[in-house]
Write a structure and sequence with these properties.
The complex is a heterodimer.
Chain A lengths: L1 E5 L3 H6 L4 H7 L6 E7 L6 E7 L5 E12 L3 E7 L8 E10 L2 E9 L3 H11 L12 H14 L1
Antiparallel strand pairs in A: 1-7, 2-3, 3-4, 4-5, 5-6, 6-7
Chain B lengths: L4 H9 L3 H10 L4 E2 H8 L3 H13 L3 E6 L2 E6 L1 H10 L2 H27 L1
Helix pairs in contact in B: 3-4
The chains are: A alpha+beta, B alpha+beta.
Chain lengths: 149, 114
């Protein structure tokens, strides 16, 4: 579970999830940009897009919304392409905390098998097909450990 | 054992130090094998062999550009590594940082127009 308090009213924070012109301004880690191929914000609608990593790697992405309750809840399936069998479901909730908003995010694996696999193999509490080429950090650590070992 | 073989293969592939070095070089963008080999002080067949392994596990892609073959990083294998290193949480934590900053901008705008 990921939780964050954002110092802005709930309607405004929710709004930032509903349009491409907003999403493209904040979606993804620092240094990533998105190119949207199709976007329809409704239950059953899809967001078909590509994320561009700072190193030039392109990550195809696909999202479809499965439940929308403005301004308090968004449920969506996230995979790499339409009807990706490994797509997994995430639930975002928006709660007013005074003049601020608490966002909570939970992820549900597509299949029990996938989740068990992640927990077993990766000791992951949460996981999924999220992307980002964090390779440098990982490789640097590996190289360093390799050098020591 | 419900486990995609390619997943474990990605980790096997990067257990080799020279393959890791190739991946680091490719972070700068597309490159031909000649330059990669030269950079790492390897023979071209040696570099090609490593690149083939990396391609098979989905860590690099290649394309023909005239007479040359250019290599670049491939998201498929990188995802696997990323998931394993806790990338999911990092992805959302960084996204929410950016959302926070953007929400402040939106707030200012609504003040001005309101």
């Amino acid at each position: 579970m990921i939780s964050r308090v954002i110092d802005a009213p709930r309607e405004l924070v929710f709004e930032a999830f509903t349009q491409v012109r907003h999403l493209s301004r904040w979606w993804g880690p620092e240094g990533f940009t998105t190119t949207t191929l199709g976007f329809e914000f409704r239950v059953g609608g899809e967001w078909d897009f590509v994320m561009h990593g700072p190193d030039g790697t392109d990550y195809p992405e696909w999202i479809t919304w499965t439940e929308l309750i403005p301004p308090e809840r968004i449920k969506f399936l996230h995979g790499e392409y339409r009807d990706d069998p490994d797509a997994f479901e995430s639930v975002l909730t928006f709660e007013s905390v005074g003049a601020a908003t608490r966002i909570e995010m939970r992820t549900v694996f597509a299949t029990k098998e996938l989740r068990d696999e992640a927990v077993e193999k990766y000791h992951a509490v949460e996981g999924g097909q999220q992307t980002l080429s964090n390779l440098a950090v990982y490789v640097t650590a590996l190289v360093r450990n390799g050098a020591e070992g | 054992m419900a486990r995609a073989a390619t997943t474990s293969d990605v980790f096997n592939a990067i257990a080799e130090p020279q393959r890791r070095e190739l991946l680091v070089l490719l972070r700068a963008g597309e490159q031909p094998v000649t330059e990669l080999a030269q950079e790492l002080g390897m023979t071209q067949p040696g570099a090609s062999k490593h690149l083939r392994v990396l391609r098979e596990v989905g860590l690099v892609r290649d394309r023909k550009a005239g007479k040359r073959r250019l290599y670049c990083l491939d998201a498929r294998g990188l995802r696997t590594i990323h998931e394993w290193t806790g990338g999911f949480e990092q992805f959302w934590n960084e996204s929410l940082d950016r959302l926070d900053a953007y929400a402040q901008e939106l707030k200012q705008e609504s003040k001005r127009s309101g």
